[in-house]
Amino acid sequence: MPIDTKADLLDSAERAVRARGFDGFSYADLANDVGIRKASIHYHFPTKAALSVALMQRYATAIQEACTEIEDGTPTGSGRLAALIALYRGALNDGKSLCLCVSFSASRESLSPEVITHIGQFRAMIVRWLTGVFELGRQDGSISDVTAPAAEATATLSLLEGAQLGARAEEDIAMFDDALELLNTRLAK
Amino acid sequence: MPIDTKADLLDSAERAVRARGFDGFSYADLANDVGIRKASIHYHFPTKAALSVALMQRYATAIQEACTEIEDGTPTGSGRLAALIALYRGALNDGKSLCLCVSFSASRESLSPEVITHIGQFRAMIVRWLTGVFELGRQDGSISDVTAPAAEATATLSLLEGAQLGARAEEDIAMFDDALELLNTRLAK
DNA sequence: GTCTATAATTGGATAGAC
DNA sequence: GTCTATCCAATTATAGAC
């Protein structure tokens, strides 16, 4: 059972970014959490910028795979949208965390250009995926009142991210559920 | 013409928080911006926590007054909602800033309990105000398809804040407009 | 009210031993 | 791969002169 320090560091860093922001944690925090000295972290990630790039890449891949899994396991538009909502809801950790993309977006000024590019690509990927979901929901009739799938997709991503922020602000997941209530009423059960 | 250093510091700090987050600026930055030495700032705001409380109080008052002005100058529900959307849009500064509440919400872990309380009160105030706007919009028929004003209000605040975050992430105000497009189609011109 | 000077701590990062 | 030791810059904050 080989110990994967690099993965441990990424796990610890992701938790830290999502709970405290990119400027809110240090190599000392990671060292404490993972159980090595902070100088040793530089062996795996020479700079904090390099660490952030690795974080964002791993995250984009994971969410992309999650979306594919949703498509494989859920045939209806409403079911797929509900699954994505659940994904964003789960990232909240009872209002103590944000998803990585939201946290990074708020820390924009401290990030390297490479990460900023990745954020843009990630957001575009989610909007594309959501557009497909709304198109399907219109076809199969499982999402009501869909007239403009692309506009629905952009609005839905903003709603999800804003609802996360609100729940984080008040450290109360009920805020997220309240914000999603209206969209939920449009989904076939 | 008396120089109000305290107000200058608050202005500079608000710009800094909104552009770079609460952890993203220092007293050195403010000193540079305002033109005094950083030690002098402690005369006006003993700690960064005290500064953040003053910022949040001033902001809440200003937005509350802006909402009252909207009510005074705009009779319809749709007009009032459009005016609030314009307020949030204006805070973006072409995608280079967030509003103070969104920026503070993302920096939650670095804030004093007092500021966190203020954020909760501020968000509740906005939701109350928006609920009234949607009730009016239902009565005067200027906002279409309003069935649950309170749910609309929570969803709208999340949409506004999420759209700000998206526009900031991509430093493109078009992202904000895209996210608000669907809500806009429900408003009477 | 603002200054200089400085304390005390922490930040990311490097060198070189093991 | 991980360690100790260290560097240098930046951070919030204080003391005391003007």
Write the layout of secondary structure elements.
2 copies of one chain form a homodimer.
Chain A: H1 5-20, H2 27-34, H3 38-44, H4 48-73, H5 77-90, H6 100-106, H7 113-139, H8 149-170, H9 173-184
Chain A binds a DNA duplex (18 and 18 nucleotides) through residues 5, 26-28, 36-40, 42-44, 46-48.
Notes on the structure:
The structure is a homodimer of 189-residue chains. Chain A is mainly α and 189 residues long. Chain A has one domain: Tetracycline Repressor, domain 2 (Orthogonal Bundle), CATH 1.10.357.10. The first copy, chain A, is built from nine helices and no strands. In chain A, helix 1 crosses helix 6. The radius of gyration of chain A is 18 Å and the shape is elongated. Chains A and B meet through helix 6, helix 7, helix 8 and helix 9 of A and helix 6, helix 7, helix 8 and helix 9 of B. Chain A binds a DNA duplex (18 and 18 nucleotides) through helix 3.
Summarize, please.
Two copies of one chain form a homodimer. Chain A has nine helices and no strands.
